[in-house]
Design a protein that fits this description.
This protein is α/β, with parallel strands linked by helices. About 20% of the residues lie in helices and about 20% in strands. The chain contains four helices and twelve strands; from the N terminus they run βββαββαββααβββββ. Strands 1-6-4-5-2 form a five-stranded mixed β-sheet, covered by helices on one side. Strands 3-7-10 form a three-stranded mixed β-sheet, covered by helices on one side. α1 packs parallel to α3. The protein is globular and about 45 Å long.
Length: about 180
């Protein structure tokens, strides 16, 4: 096991779903993690590998997204990662060296920011955001490894009304080309 800060780990995929494989919403999971009712240590370790001196998550891109936001909120410094021996090139879809990830689904980035703001004001974020309470397993066990990465090929890249977001220093609506970065 290695111990890395979430900001040291890059995404291996270009996009993630706004729900885990078991249907649990990322917002509900994030609220539980931020509130301390769920521990990062209780979730499977991210599977990571090194490529060109950079660490990439080969499993756990959605969890990595949440961990990066927990790090930004000041409640998480490091995560345990298991070193992967290799990666599936079919699933290594990043087009930006893993610096950003597109979140499929309406408003995930904005919802995460709202949860952090409500948490800082002392509001009960779990009660508000528990639309999908975790069932205990945040991933699907497949042949000896945990895989919560989206590979359902739902072709959600079309020009439709659900907004797609990149998580980075700013937010970008891919379908409409708007830059929501405040800088």
């Amino acid at each position: 096991m290695e111990v890395l800060s979430p900001s040291e780990i890059r995404y291996s995929q270009d996009s993630i779903s706004n729900k885990f494989t078991d249907g649990t919403s990322m917002t509900a999971t994030f609220a539980l993690l931020l509130d301390g009712q769920l521990s990062v240590d209780s979730l499977p370790a991210l599977g990571c590998f090194q490529k060109d001196d950079n660490w990439y998550a080969v499993s756990g891109n959605r969890r990595l997204f949440l961990y990066k936001h927990l790090e930004d909120a000041g409640v998480l410094d490091t995560v345990a990662v298991s070193r992967a021996r290799g990666y599936n090139s079919r699933k290594f879809t990043t087009k930006c060296d893993g610096l950003y990830v597109r979140c499929r689904g309406h408003g995930l980035e904005a919802s995460i920011q709202q949860i952090v703001a409500e948490w800082r004001r002392g509001e009960d974020i779990v009660a508000k955001w528990e639309t999908s309470v975790p069932t205990g397993d945040f991933s699907t066990y497949r042949g000896g490894y945990y895989d919560d990465d989206d590979d359902d090929d739902d072709d959600d890249d079309s020009d439709d009304e659900d907004y797609d977001w990149y998580y980075s220093d700013g937010c970008y609506d891919l379908d409409h080309g708007y830059n929501y970065d405040s800088d």
